[in-house]
C-alpha cells in the first residue's frame, strides 16, 4: 500500500496543503526541533540532516530518482537516519531488524498515517487508516475472503478473465501498464462482488476512474477541479454500493466473496464501512498488481533464457492438463510453477514497487540507542532492504534462481509484514501466475526498444507504461 496508498503520491500531495502553516511551523521548528538543549536526558536523534525549515530535504528527494536519495542517505548515515520531507520530520529505517521492530514487534508504537485528503477520498473507515479492535475485525473479514481456502475455487473464473484480457491484445501495440490495470481491476471486482453484480459494474468502474484522476491532484475542493469531481464520484460510489447491498439483502443467499464476508450477520459492518473498505481494497489491489505484472513482462522480454524456462514450465502444465482432459487451471496447478513463482518474487525484489511505507510514532520510542520522537513519521525503506548486498548479492542483477532458497526473515517484504501486511497477497500471486500461464504458452511480444528508464506514477514503472507489440504465437 501504501502503502499501497502510494507513498510518493501521498508525499506529493502533502506539498500543497500546508502553505498557510508554513510560517507558524517555521517559528516553532526553529525554537523547538532544532534548538533542544543538548543536556536533555533522552537518547539522541538518529544521524542525518534536516535541510531547510519546512521544505526540509524535499528538493533533494525529488530532484533525483527518490530511490537514489534513499540509497545516498543510507550510504552516508547508515541504516537509521533522520530527514525532513514536506513538512514532516521523519526517521527512515533500512535494516531488517528496524523494519521488524516498526512493523511487527513494536507495531503498537507506530500508527498508520495519511494526509486527510486521502482519507476523505478513499473513505475514513477503510482498513489502512485503522488500529486496534476495529482494524483487527476488518482484517479478519478481509482475510476470510482472500485466504487460499477461499480463493481456490475462483481460479477458473480468474483464468477466464486472463484469457479474455490477452485475447483483446492480439495483434496490437499496447500500453502494458494500462492493460494490466484493466486486468487487475476485473480480478479485484470478481473477488469482491463475485460474478453476479454485472449490472452495476460498468457504472462503478466509471466512477472509480474519475476518483482515480482526482486522487493525485491537488486537494482543492472547488467546482470543476479534478479533486472536486473525484469527491463527487466518491459519493456516487457509495450510492452504487448501497444498491448492490440492497439487491443482495433481498436475495438472502450466501456469498463467498469479499462483500459476502463484510455482510455476514455476526460481524456485519455498517453500509458506510462496507463502501469505504470496498473502495479501499480496489485501490490497494489494482495499481500494485498491475505494476508488478508490467515489470515481469519487461524482465522476461529482456531475459530470453529465463522466458524460455518459464515457457517450458507452463507448457508442461498445459500438456498434462490436456492429457487429463482438464480445461481449466486448478489451485494445485498454480502450486506447481516454481520457476514462474521465482520470476514473480525476483521481480518484486528488483522493482520494489512500494519503495517504502509510512508510520507515525505514537509516543517517544527508543530504538538501538536512538530517539524516535512522538509524532515523527517513520519510513521502513523496503527497497533499500531488497537492494542491500548483505541480503542479496549483486542486488541489481535480475536472477530468479536466488529464490531457490528462502530469503532470511524481514529481508524480503514485498507485501510488508506484521499487523498491516497485505491480506491480498495470495490473490495477487494467483492472478499473476494465471496470467503468466496464458501469456507464455500462447503469445509472443516485443518491447518497443528505447524504453530504458523509470517513471514514478506513484509506483515505480517502466517508462511510458511499457509499450509492447503483442501477438498470438504461430
Ligand atoms: C503484487 C501486488 C501487491 C503488492 C506488492 C501489495 C503490497 C502491499 C503492502 C506492502 C502492504 C502493507 C503496507 C503497509 O504496511 O503500510 C499492503 C497492504 C494491503 N493490501 Fe496489498 N499488495 C498487492 C496486492 C493486493 C491485492 C490484490 C489486494 C486485495 C485484493 C490487496 C489489499 C491490501 C489491503 C487491504 C492492505 C491493507 C492492510 C491493512 O492495513 O491491514 N493488496 N499491500
Ligand atoms: C515477519 O516478521 C516475523 C517476525 O520477525 C518473521 O518471522 C517473518 O519471517 C517476517 N516475514 C517476512 C515476509 O519477512
TrEMBL record:
Where does it primarily localize? membrane
Please state what class of enzyme this protein is. oxidoreductase
Enzyme Commission code: 1.14.14.137
Q: Which Pfam families match?
A: p450 (PF00067)
Q: How does it sit in the membrane?
A: Single-pass membrane protein
- GO MF term set: (+)-abscisic acid 8'-hydroxylase activity; heme binding; iron ion binding
Q: Which residues cross the membrane?
A: 6-28
- Which reaction(s) does its UniProt entry say it catalyses? 2-cis-(+)-abscisate + reduced [NADPH--hemoprotein reductase] + O2 = (+)-8'-hydroxyabscisate + oxidized [NADPH--hemoprotein reductase] + H2O + H(+)
Per its UniProt record, what InterPro entries does this chain match?
A: Cyt_P450, Cyt_P450_CS, Cyt_P450_E_grp-I, Cyt_P450_sf
Alphabetical UniProt keywords: Heme, Iron, Membrane, Metal-binding, Monooxygenase, Oxidoreductase, Transmembrane, Transmembrane helix
Compartments it resides in: Membrane
Name the pathway it acts in: Plant hormone degradation; abscisic acid degradation
Residues binding heme: 422
PROSITE patterns per UniProt: CYTOCHROME_P450
Q: Which SUPFAM superfamilies does the record associate with it?
A: Cytochrome P450
What does the entry list under GO cellular component? Answer: membrane
Q: Which GO terms describe its biological process?
A: abscisic acid metabolic process; sterol metabolic process
Known cofactor(s): heme
Give the family, as the similarity comment puts it: Belongs to the cytochrome P450 family.
Protein role? Involved in the oxidative degradation of abscisic acid.
Protein name per UniProt? (+)-abscisic acid 8'-hydroxylase
Amino acid at each position: 500500500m501504501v502503502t499501497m496508498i502510494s507513498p510518493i503520491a501521498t508525499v506529493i500531495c502533502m506539498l500543497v496543503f500546508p502553505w498557510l502553516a508554513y510560517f507558524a511551523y517555521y517559528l516553532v521548528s526553529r525554537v523547538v526541533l532544532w534548538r533542544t538543549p543538548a543536556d536533555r536526558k533522552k537518547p539522541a536523534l538518529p544521524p542525518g540532516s534536516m535541510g531547510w525549515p519546512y521544505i526540509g530535504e524535499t528538493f533533494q528527494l525529488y530532484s533525483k530518482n527518490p530511490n537514489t536519495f534513499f540509497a545516498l542517505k543510507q550510504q552516508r548515515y547508515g541504516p537509521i537516519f533522520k530527514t525532513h520531507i514536506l513538512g514532516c520530520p521523519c526517521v527512515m529505517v533500512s535494516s531488517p531488524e528496524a523494519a521488524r521492530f516498526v512493523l511487527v514487534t513494536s507495531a503498537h508504537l507506530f500508527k498508520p498515517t495519511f494526509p486527510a485528503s486521502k482519507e476523505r477520498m478513499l473513505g475514513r473507515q477503510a482498513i489502512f487508516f485503522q488500529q486496534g479492535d476495529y482494524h483487527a475485525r476488518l482484517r479478519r473479514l478481509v482475510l476470510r475472503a482472500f485466504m487460499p481456502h477461499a480463493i481456490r475455487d475462483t481460479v477458473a473464473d480468474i483464468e477466464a478473465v486472463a484469457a479474455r484480457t490477452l485475447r483483446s491484445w492480439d495483434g496490437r501495440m499496447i500500453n502494458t501498464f494500462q492493460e494490466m490495470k484493466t486486468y487487475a481491476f476485473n480480478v479485484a471486482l470478481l473477488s469482491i462482488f463475485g460474478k453476479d453484480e454485472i449490472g452495476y459494474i460498468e457504472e462503478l468502474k466509471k466512477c472509480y476512474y474519475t476518483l482515480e484522476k482526482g486522487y493525485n491532484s491537488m486537494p482543492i475542493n472547488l467546482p470543476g477541479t479534478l479533486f472536486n469531481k473525484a469527491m463527487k464520484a466518491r459519493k456516487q460510489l457509495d450510492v452504487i454500493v448501497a444498491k448492490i447491498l440492497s439487491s443482495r439483502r433481498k436475495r438472502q443467499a450466501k456469498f463467498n466473496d469479499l462483500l459476502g464476508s463484510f455482510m455476514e450477520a455476526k460481524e456485519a459492518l455498517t453500509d458506510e464501512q462496507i463502501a469505504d473498505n470496498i473502495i479501499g481494497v480496489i485501490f490497494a489491489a489494482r495499481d500494485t498488481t498491475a505494476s508488478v505484472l508490467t515489470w515481469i513482462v519487461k524482465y522476461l522480454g529482456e531475459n530470453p533464457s529465463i522466458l524460455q524456462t518459464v515457457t517450458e514450465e507452463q507448457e508442461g502444465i498445459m500438456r498434462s492438463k490436456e492429457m487429463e482432459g482438464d480445461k481449466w487451471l486448478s489451485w494445485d496447478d498454480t502450486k506447481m510453477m516454481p520457476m514462474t513463482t521465482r520470476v514473480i518474487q525476483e521481480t518484486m525484489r528488483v522493482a520494489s514497487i512500494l519503495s517504502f511505507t509510512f508510520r507515525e510514532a505514537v509516543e517517544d520510542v527508543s530504538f538501538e540507542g536512538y530517539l524516535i520522537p512522538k509524532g515523527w513519521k517513520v519510513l521502513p525503506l523496503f527497497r533499500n532492504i531488497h537492494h542491500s548486498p548483505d541480503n542479496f548479492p549483486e542486488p541489481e542483477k535480475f536472477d530468479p534462481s536466488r529464490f531457490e532458497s528462502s530469503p532470511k526473515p524481514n529481508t524480503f517484504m514485498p507485501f510488508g509484514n506484521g499487523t498491516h501486511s497485505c491480506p491480498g497477497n495470495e490473490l495477487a500471486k494467483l492472478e499473476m501466475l494465471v496470467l503468466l500461464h496464458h501469456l507464455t504458452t500462447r503469445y509472443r511480444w516485443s518491447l518497443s526498444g528505447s524504453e530504458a528508464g523509470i517513471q514514478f506514477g506513484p509506483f515505480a514503472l517502466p517508462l511510458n507504461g511499457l509499450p509492447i507489440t503483442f501477438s498470438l504465437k504461430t
